[in-house]
Amino acid sequence: MQEVLKTLGIQEVNFGTSTGVEFFGNTSQNLIESYSPVDGKLIGKVSTTTKEEYEQVMELAQEAFKTWRLVPAPQRGEIVRQYGEALRKYKDELGRLVSYEMGKSLQEGWGEVQEMIDICDFAVGLSRQLYGLSMHSERPSHRMYEQWHPMGVVGIISAFNFPVAVWSWNAMIAMVCGNVCVWKGSEKTPLCGVACQNILAEVLKANDLPEGISAIVTGNYEVGEWISTDARIPLVSATGSTRMGKIVAQKVAGRLGRYLLELGGNNAMIVTPSADLDVTLVGSVFGAVGTCGQRCTSTRRLIIHESVYSDFVQKLANAYGQLRIGDPLDQNNHVGPLIDKDAVAMYNNAIAEAKKSGGKVLVEGGVLEGEGYESGCYVKPCVIEVESQLDIVKHETFAPILYVMKYSTLDEAIALQNDVPQGLSSAMMTTNLRDSEQFLSVAGSDCGIANVNIGTSGAEIGGAFGGEKETGGGRESGSDSWKAYMRRQTNTINYSTELPLAQGIKFDF
Q1: What's the N-to-C CA distance of the chain in angstroms?
Q2: How many Å apart are CA 127 and CA 177, to the nearest integer?
Q3: Order of strands across the sheet that contains 401-407
Q4: pLDDT tens, position by position, 71-100
Q5: For residues 44 and 2, what is the distance between their CA atoms, to the nearest angstrom?
Q6: Which of 35, 155, 163, 503 has a CA-to-CA distance to 454 between 20 and 30 Å?
């Protein structure tokens, strides 16, 4: 791992995290120590950003915006293209760092970097498609149109579970739109942020562009509050828990800024009588245990028709018995560790609460100990049968706990699925066209993502990503989500020799 860190420009103690290079005095003596959940070892230390350094970052970002906004959008796309090429060069090393610092499987680590590459490709194309509209004016010899301008400094607050991809969803689109970015990554995965910034700094330097186009600030919730309350940041995009999102929303709204929130998920899969159970098994198991259940799109609930319930639950138990839990950098393993011991405690508490409320454990959980599990962060994915949606089932627990329940009618199943505060992702497994169409109709899933015959987990960058209710209502990544990062302007041009007023109003003197 030390060779990987060296390749990514990360030393044992990496100062200058504000932009990825050492140009501040780094007056902070506070260091964030990053320990790997894989083996419990110290990976490196990152200095926290002081308020003075934050102010310097903001000054640099504002100054960089004056340059960057004047660069034609297709040329901004070229810079993002170069960053995508650099990510291809460092894909192995960055993917390994993601896997080691966060704990997800190596395949998922590489996949996360590939997602960054994909969003770069998407943003490059987008740089030539920032379209406005033209409209017919009611006044003669007038032309009306809309155009979109960059907003300025975009603040990005991201979570540990996707320590690099979620930043890129925001940053790459924000950059081609002409914005500059200030990023606060999770203090649980700070080295991933430093690595991304180091790679981007190389690209900006090679093109003689100000490094303030992208900057990182590091620290705890206080640094996030600086961003949320900073009137110089017109848009804050925050990914994390619903509790965190509500705080950010209040802070940003209090200064009439804009926010884009991607918060909790409590995602269900409905298994109908006609479902292909083999396909369903793969989708449900990966959805529940992938990233050790630490995806916002992880499958938390299986709502299974009573006619196939016993058969499928048996298949599920058999599949769980074959899961290999261990070092995520070993590609023979399916499940890695939780992020830290606090996450383990929440996992244990949720299982205890489900049992106390009458849940029946079908696949036993527990914390793994012994050789290979020294970090204390490895747990067994578990399955719990519930008669109805208990209070604990309505809460998102970032861990591999899967709740299963029966249903009789499709209306009942959809009602069960929607009966949670969150509204991110959902899925139905069926070969019945009528069932699938009802699920996707206005009377069906109330989630921002609704899939048929694929799981709840995972999303392609071409589609806008986000959810409803306590998930926050934001949209990132594909489709027309670029509009969130720009300000709309309506323009009217009078090329006549008179000044007619709208609505036929007369004003003569």
Answers
A1: 80
A2: 7
A3: 360-363, 382-385, 401-407, 299-305, 267-271, 425-429, 449-452
A4: 999 999 999 999 999 999 999 999 999 999
A5: 10
A6: 163
